[in-house]
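Encode chain A's predicted structure.
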Amino acid sequence: MVSEPISKTLDWKPALCPRPITLQGRTVRLEPLNAKVHAGLWQAVQGHDAVWTWLADGPYSDEASLGASLASKQSAADAVFLAIVPEEIGTIAGYASFMRMDPANGVVEVGNILLSPPLQRTTAATEAMYLMARHVFEDLGYRRYEWKCNALNLPSRRAAERLGFRFEGIFRQHMVIKGQNRDTAWYSMLDSEWPAREQAFEAWLDPTNFDTTGRQKKNLNTGDR
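Encoded structure for chain A:
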């Protein structure tokens, strides 16, 4: 006779809810998104409508329309948006958010990630994701960090796996975005996995991993690929 599994009682207290915060790294700074302060995002994305392909909003036809969107994100009650400011550029080049926040169960998602062309495939972009993950696990006390994207969005899925998120499955007909069906690919990272992920990030981000031109010597290896 097989006994029924017994749920393990957790020594658990709710996590802290994300708040607007500045997170400083070596190559990038994350700071609370502000429509006025970060109006320069228009220059970074103007003429690059493809950056909005997989997002629920955009593209925008003019600076005023984008500014109104940034103001809405700045005041959102259900998400915390952070501007991504690479040190090399010195001005906003993208943003990301903490969303679907469930501190009682220790679950939060990173999403609404916009990377302008100057930010894509850079050390700063990777370090921004590292700083957000570290904040979630080490400062706020979350158990589960989620990444979700359109199942057809192969670059996002590759990014999730590179950053150490584990694929969990596809939610079919999960959403309707811009009038189109979205099957959603779900990924997660757990607090028990974070120490190894952190070690991999820090080894990759170490200045000795880059040559004089800024090219990486070793790929980011988070262990699950």
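The longest helix spans residues 123-139.
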